[in-house]
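U., I forgot to send this yesterday:
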Amino acid sequence: MIKKIILLTAVIISFNSSLLAIVDTSYTDHLKPFSWNPISDSDKITQYENQKTLTKRSIQQAAKGKEHYDNALNYMQNKEYMSAISEFEIAIKRYERAKLSADGMNYIYLNMALSYANSGYPKDKAEAERLLSLLTAKIYDEQEWAYNAAIAHYQVGKMNDATKILSKLISKNYAFFQAYVTLEAIYREGENDDQADKVIDRMLSAEEKYYNKKKKSNKDKKKNIVKEVSQENGQKPDITKITPISNAKLKDYTNGKELDKKKTTQMQSGIESFILGTNSLKDRNYTIAQKQLKDAEKILRKYLSDDGLNFVRGNLAIAYLVTQSKRGVGTANKYLRNITSKLYNKQKWTYNMAVAYYQFAFMSAREDKKNKTRKWNSPKPAENLKTSIKLFQKSINQDKLYLPAYENLIYIYREQGENEKADKLAKSLQKARLKLVTKYSLKEQQAKGGEKHIFRLNLGTFGRFDTPAYLFDEEHVIAIPLDEIRTVYLSGKFYNVNEVKQYQKEMKNKGYNNTFIVAYKDGEEIGFE
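Result:
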């Protein structure tokens, strides 16, 4: 069996540290080629103008342009590109009336080009290309914007322009690993394997450099994997990140009614609309999801009990709340008030609705712009927030290892000034994290909201003549030179503590008596006890 040894022949021949520093590759494991996200930066659009000379009309037109620009970005994030284009067109007219400079228009032109390139209509590629030709050099001074410009050039078939932009980005920032991954993929697609291989070599060198730099800066700042020194602030509930559920057995909720063939067919069409609507919700096609789920609810309420309609109404409420529109709040309320307690028999539904009720409370609470807070004590927000908290608590009781429920509830407690409750829950969260990372597989950990950790075993530091020959028979060997004589060797690659501890016992039986476990998170070494 071929062993996966990450080691160079140069380890034995030459102790050139620039060749020997092999690092953990998890800096790039999670990156996907061509991945991109819309960028707003709406406040930057007027940064190139002389604020003192702007007329009142210009300021008013720019403010109106910003409203349409922000609307367009929301559509982009929901992948509703044709709607985004319509809003961008209005924004451009407003900004042109404000007489903005070409440098300020870059942000609109590039986002609009990306919308055209992703509209799904081949003819729109030409318009995207035209918009890209309007970009000034200023946009390429900003890393994330320049990267998105490279994506846009690639999407309209301008491969050479895309590779030039990405190469320049890498030259400016050697640790911009997303640029390497995309650049290598473009070369592979163009069957230019030589250049693709060079990009990979360059990326490996960059990872080595970044690893050594991080290791040096973190030398006195190592964190324990479970016991964190800093306060646990939790994560704000985000309705855009929940996973809509479609696997409900709706036919079980007919209350034993006898249905003839025609009614059975109608009910089945309602169930199909429910599945389609939920899938559209997963794909973030919210307008389509709303229509399909409304159709499902209209049909199924003839045949199902309220307990059965829970599943449709729950996803309908989410579909309206996720748009973050005021109109959506009122519509969501209509569906939420008809949900029965039976929906909360399953943990996944309990969690999703806890997030939905938080979103409902957040949007119905007036914003205190002076203090940058929300007025939670109004009757409706207070009631919905209370419901959200109860559902988060129930979700935790139903599955004590589902981390997002802890993180969201801790955030809410901090937000409401209930720090004692947050601190107490943070201890439970730490225990849940420890249990996950100790016993469960990587897939199981990630399903529970856990983060990826990699555990390796430090076998020891060896010199030129005392390195055990059989060391290189181990899996996933990594060599990290300390100087021209001494080298640290790591081996193994595990995703939970029990597995690496078992491996540690096996290595002790082989004569490695001074080993210790090394943990990595996001490619960086962290403390482990």
